[in-house]
Each structure stands twice: as structure tokens, then as C-alpha cells.
Write a structure and sequence with these properties.
This protein is of the alpha+beta class. Helices cover about 35% and strands about 25% of the residues. It folds into four domains: about 20-240 and about 310-395, 2-Layer Sandwich (Nucleotidyltransferase, domain 5); about 240-310, Actin, Chain A, domain 4, CATH 3.90.640; about 400-525, Sandwich (Substrate Binding Domain Of DNAk, Chain A, domain 1), CATH 2.60.34; about 525-615, Substrate Binding Domain Of Dnak, Chain:A, Domain 2 (Up-down Bundle). The chain binds adenosine-5'-diphosphate (ADP) and magnesium ion.
Length: about 625
Amino acid sequence: MALLQISEPGQSPDPHQRRIAVGIDLGTTHSLVAAVRHGSAECLPDEQGRVILPSAVRYMVDERGQTRRQIGFEALAAQAEDSQNTIVSVKRFMGRRLADLPDAGRLPYQFEDQPGMVAVKTVAGVKSPVEVSAEILASLRQRAEDTFNDDLFGAVITVPAYFDDAQRQATKDAAQMAGLNVLRLLNEPTAAAIAYGLDNGAEGLYAIYDLGGGTFDISLLRLSRGVFEVVATGGDSALGGDDIDHLLADAALLDAKMETVTPQDKRTVLVAARRTKEKLSTDGSAHLSCALSGGMLSVKITRERLAELAKPLIDKSLASVKRVLLDAKVKPDEVKGVVMVGGSTRMPAVRDAVGAFFGQPPLTDLNPDEVVALGAAIQANQLAGNNAQGELLLLDVLPLSLGLETMGGLVERIIPRNTPIPCALAQDFTTFKDGQTALAVHVVQGEREQVEHCRSLARFELRGIPPMAAGAARIRVSFQVDADGLLSVSAKEQLSGVEASVVIKPSYGLTDEQVASMLREGFTTAAADMKDRALREARVEAERMLEATRTALAADGDLLSPEDRARIDGLMAQIGQRCDRGDIDALEASIKALADGTEAFAAERMNRSIRQALAGRKLDQV
Ligand code: ADP
Ligand code: MG
């Protein structure tokens, strides 16, 4: 994050013009919105005082054929009766194809495999996961705007650390559809670490243990110079509090000798089990009681009993933690701090087990449901330029340079990184060969000098350039980046006016970690790159010299004596040999030798062409 910061002293925003920026945890089961108010981050409640919004959207069509939708608690309540049209856990479908969802057959939805991403058929039409997520985001945006009675400047939205490009892009698209200005996407574990202020603390390794309702995620982060880097991630996409509910429900039914119950009864017991489990996080014992079709169920459960039941599941989570530490070659005692995220980390048994594993008590002061949203809010507030130091953090800069491939596989930087956007820059290029009528334009992103080390963004061709001598065409290539980070590149031949262009989303699809690593590579290899660049440039120059000499020989070779011709051929052959070797000095010397050795020949050619041009004309016509 710090990599993208630009501080502009003296430009700190007026406190009265504070920009409203929020953090949004777009979760699988719950979503939250938080903002920094009165100096600290807090989650914003709805009208009923609830901060959690169930991530559920129900699509309906009313009597008049109008499409309607319910979002959050209302939708969740209707889930059982209208499961086909009530979409829950949509996060699992973001940026995924049908083939990526192994359990799709067990879900109550009618999926439609669309190019790029699966969609769901509902009474109100086919809905993409992006649209469904946009409904949730729009609802949270509305909540924030109502709270502040003002428009939002922007939002930081969190995503799991393991989300790939397609999933991140889908999240951004959903935000845009919800009318949110995405300041950035932030990894969930990083957000949790920021909520605890770890970014201001000691450098080193931190573990984020996130046990939710249905999933377990473990992330190992490294803090250095105020920036978190994801070192490793792991977990289990089918392990969470729901599994503990099942174990507890089964145990209670067994105690009451009611092992065989109807599916409806089972659902009722599960709800009661969850309530009892949550109560046991604060109380030593509790009654699991509910009315079933065969009579009342009432069983006393102690905290110890629950801990015993949950132990195999907690151990399973610790096995994932071990694997991640092993992968990263890190010992548990090298971890400086452990952050607890997710509702299930409220269970004392979970806290104790994690504490014992790492040999230190985990951080639990903040509400584990809210910690991700709180961290996102803190970062959003900084990005909006509201932080106390008065320094303005601009995210609206290009994270990586944009450029073009030139001869020899080199990159010509057109817009350097950290240039504020929107921006537009142009540069003139020319043709390499005589009579060249097309130009291949290859747009790349990155800090390295060679094309193969940068990221290729797009290729297009400019065709229809009138045949001209090499170097005579004037091709203006313009780069324009708009406020949304959308890049358009156009190439125009100035004499003939022929033009070609493309539109690209440049930084999209790169994670912050990828950006950071591309930057790091760019810095550490700069010296090697410079040398390599010099060599490549010399080779391009050599090619150009050889090409020009060959053309000249073909046209006017008869001007040369056989000895001069042999000498020039020898110089050309020497360049050819030296091109293949890595000695820049030798190559440059032989280029100079050819330039010097053909000087007289060039003068002869000039004389001849002037004579030809003047032939048959009177002096006053010249
Ligand atoms: P997710 O990240 O999967 O959306 P959450 O982080 O909101 O889920 O966690 C939901 C889980 O946390 C549920 O299984 C719920 O029962 C559990 N949970 C919530 N509060 C408590 C509590 N006080 N004690 C134990 N478990 C809890
Ligand atoms: Mg969660």
C-alpha cells in the first residue's frame, strides 16, 4: 500500500471537507460496512441497530409483473420457502465457471454456465453473481449514505487473500455496479491486521486465523516497512462453526434417544444447537431445548462437553496451520502475533487451542465478526486523505509504468509509475525499414527494461502506412488513462492520418502483491537491466546500419571499386559476428568502423542522386 502513496505536503484536506470513505467486508454469509467516526473505526448499524447484513438476495415478481428483491434478513427468512430464488453464499460463485463448483449439483439453484462466470436463473431473470453482490453492496452503500447524510467518496472492499484475478475483477465490477468508487481491494487477513494496528508495530510475521461459519482460512503475513505481504495462505473450504452445530445437534439427539428425526426437525435442532453453542462462549453451561414433532428436546450441555465435541474440528484447523507454516518454512514461535477473525473464534476452546499452538495468547480484543470491516474502514479513511498527519494519500496513481515494445524486445516507458490519473501522454515513433506499411504496437506494464519481464496488456497493428524510407514515417502513439484506470492507446501516422487504437484495463487483474513484487524486481535488477538494454540497443543499431548499407549497396553498388566493396562486406560480416556475442564495446566499435568505412560511399551516392535530380532541368526550375 505504501508503494502507492504520494504525500503532498500542504495539501491536507480541510477538516470540514472530510471525505466519507467506508470499508466493506463482503462476506460469504454476512457483510458489514464500517467507517472511521470520531477518530475510531466502527461498524454502521441498520435502522434496527444490527450491524450484520446477511449476504442473501431474494428475487421476486409481484402481481403486476414487476421485479422486486429482498436483501439481508428478509431474504434469509424466505430462504427455506423460496430457495431457488434466494441466493446465499454468492461469494463462492464470483468469477467462477460451473466446472469450478464441484458441489453445484447439491445446491438449490438452476445454474447457467455463461462465458466467464456461472449465472443463476431466477423468476426475475438470469442473475450473475456480480449483480447479486452488487445488490448487497448497494444496500450497504445506502446504509452508509443514510448514516452520514452525504455521498460516499469511496470504499475499500475486502477479498480473501487467495482470490484470483477473475474473482477480484468480479468484486470490482460488482462495486462499480453498486455505484461505489473502489479505492482498492484489500485482502481480508491484511484488513484484520490493520484493525489491530499491527502495521504500526514490529516488523515480522503475523498469522491470521479465520474460522467462520463454513470456511477456515489461515494466512501468514509479513510486515516490512509498513506494508503487509501475504507469505502463504491455506485452510479448508468445508470447515467452520456449522460443522460444530451438526456435532452438537447429533450429540443432543443421541442423549435424548431421538436419533431418527425428520429433516425439518433436524433443521430445528441445528438452529437450537447454534444458539446453545454461542451461549457457551460466555456461560459455563446451557440448555439445548426446542420443540420437535415427537415432543420437546431439552438437554443440558456444558462448555467442556462442547469443547470435547469440537476438538477434532479444531485439530483439523491446526493441521492446516501447521501445513502453511511448513510450506513457508516458519516455526510457530517465529510468529510475532496471531489475530483471530470469524465468529467461531469466540469459542474459548478455539482460543485456547490456537494460543497453545503458537505459545502466545491470540489477539481477541476486537469483535471477530467486525475486525475485517474495521481494518478496511481504517484504510479507506487513509486513502481518502482524512488521516491525522494531514498527508494526502493518493491511490489514483498508476501502480506500474506503461510502455511499448520497441525494436530488440526493449520497453519504451510512456507513462511512468506513480503518475496521477487521469493522464495522457504521447510519443512519436518511426518505421524501421524502407517501405514498411504496418507497425505492430505492443502495450506492456512493468518496471523492467525487457518486454519478456513485463506484463503484456495488448497488441494491435497500425496498417496502411504509406511506403516511405525507414525513419520518415511519424507515428504518434498516445496513451490515455481515465479516472477509472481505463487505458486507451492509439497510434496515428501523422502524414497519412491512418489510425488504430485499443482500450485496456491496465492494473486490473494484478494483485497488490504482484504489483509489489514487480516493483521489487524492477529495482533489484535495474543495474543488470541497464547493461542488457545497452547491448540490445547496440544490436538494434547494428541491424539498422546493416539494413541501410545493404539497401545502399543494392541501389548504388556499382559506384564502388571491387576492393572497396570487399572492405565494406568485411566490415558488415564483422558486425554480424559481434552481434551474436555479448561484448558491447566490440560491437559498438565495429558499428563505428562500418559508419566510417562507408562515409565516402555515402558521399558518392549523394552526388549521384543530386545529379539525377538535376538532370534535364534548367537551373531556375531547381
Ligand atoms: P463467515 O465468515 O463464514 O461469513 P462468521 O465469521 O460470521 O462467518 O462466523 C459465523 C459463525 O460464527 C457461525 O458458525 C456462528 O455460529 C459462529 N459464532 C458467532 N458467534 C459465536 C459465539 N459467540 N460463539 C461461538 N460461535 C459463534
Ligand atoms: Mg468471514
